Amino acid sequence: LIIGDFTAKVGDPSGVSKERPMLTDQEIRTNMKGYLGQAGKIIDVKKAEVRYNSKWLSKNNLEGILELTKAATINQISERADFRGRIKAGQKVSLLEGLYSLLQGFDSVNIKADVELGGTDQLLNLLMGRQVQRHYGMKEQDILTVPLIEGTDGKEKMSKSKGNYIALTEQPKDMFGKIMSVPDKLISKYFELCTDVDTKALKEIKTALQKKGTNPMEYKLRLAQEIVALYYNEKDANKAKEEFLSVFSKKNLPKDILTKALSSKSYELTDLLCETSMASSKSDARRLAEQGGVRINGEKVTNANTKIKLGKETLLLQVGKQKFLRVKGK
Known about the structure:
GO biological process, one term: tyrosyl-tRNA aminoacylation
Enzyme class: ligase
Structural class: alpha/beta
Oligomer: single chain
Distance between the termini: 45 Å
Domain RNA-binding S4: 268-330
Number of helices: 15
Radius of gyration: 23 Å
CATH superfamily of the largest domain: HUPs
CATH architecture of the largest domain: 3-Layer(aba) Sandwich
EC number: 6.1.1.1
Organism: Candidatus Woesebacteria bacterium GW2011_GWB1_38_8
Strand order of the largest sheet: 5-11-10-7-8
């Protein structure tokens, strides 16, 4: 399992419309904290060999970098669709970005990779791994790509930066709730790509969803149960389903809403959402508010700049359909 702590400084340019900002070492360390926990949901990390690519990339001198650059041509790199589009639009593409796929390919050289896995957006990077291995006289790795899925908005690919993601480390009830917010059109795709449902059952689900009069809620509930059980267990999945039905079908509030006392007596809505971790960033908080996803004491608040005053009385803060928190002043 390779953790790209060095390549994270550059940032993968695949599919992006502008150059990514370089991350600091502190930002990278913060991001890395949860990697093994996430990977541990799928693989037994105790049996895995975990490698950090800074071990070989940070030690590479200029002579080594020059040798690596001989593995690909400028013509080849500039023909990438994402780079080509930016160049055509008059936007810059730095040489640093062009190096990214070579650096990732050098990972395959250092661990003598037999096979590399990735999303379809990683195809060019994975192929570059084969090319770099060939340049160093090694046997070329096999590659396996898997389709990407749209996020909870049903529009763009699932991404933390876009706020449309479902984290592997979400609590069962939160994971269940987010899956239930996915558009109906994605139910079949999520069953196919995110569950262990067999081919026969998948075919039956797809057929049923295409029939007139079918209630997609029935299949979405099953989808959420399947996914939560996959990353937790059947008991947690059933409990999450019961709570979801209680909160959203019977309009009850969750039983275990936390109360948080905050030091300031007044917050702008965006600051309040960030301070309470109900939003990942100010831009995320603004988006949630403007899309009607924020309520205080049951009332929708769409102005992201709204001043929220805190006192001894608690306020019920709700974000989306599954996040609840009581807040008050100290």
